[in-house]
Amino acid sequence: MWDRVDRRRFPRAEYPCLITMRKHTPSPFSMLTHTENISVGGVRVIVGKRIEVMIDVDLEIDLMDTLPNVTSDGTVSWVKEILPAQKGRSPSYEIGIQFITLKDEYRRRIQSIVEHLSSKSG
User: Fold this and answer.
1) Could you give the CA distance from residue 69 to residue 122 in angstroms, rounded to a whole number?
2) Confidence label for 6 from pLDDT (cuts 50, 70 and 90)
3) How many CB atoms lie under 10 A from the CB of residue 91?
4) What is the pLDDT of residues 89-103, one digit of tens each?
5) Does residue 55 belong to any structural domain of this protein?
6) What is the pTM of this model?
């Protein structure tokens, strides 16, 4: 039962930005999607393909600013089906991806966005 206490390690912000996820082996894929929320610890995205937990992916995130895209290795931490397959429609999944190799400069950019959005909503 949810006790309304947010136990997340890092504050998050709803910040839709474009993200490219790539996996090279053993079953390679590349997909473009958008973030549902972001923190210095990782991102939550919606995808149309089930991705296994604990696989490693390469991430490239366009924060929709004028600076270079953020890159990091990541690990899929969790997967949740949010829209089951129906006739003529594929299922959708939420996935949480933890940043593994996020550079300090990228961490500062994301932190700045999260803090800015938190101050506007509070």
Assistant:
1) 28
2) very low
3) 14
4) 888 999 999 999 999
5) yes
6) 0.83
Residue 75, domain member (yes or no): yes
SS3 110: helix
Q: Work out how many domains the chain is built from and give that number.
A: 1
* Identity at 61, one-letter amino acid code: I
Q: pLDDT band for 104, please (50, 70, 90 cuts).
A: very high
Answer whether residue 89 is part of any domain.
yes
Domain region containing 50: 18-121
Under 8 Å CB-to-CB from 47, ≥6 apart: which residues?
Answer: 21, 31, 33, 92, 93, 95
In-domain check, residue 26: yes
- 49: domain CATH number is 2.40.10.220
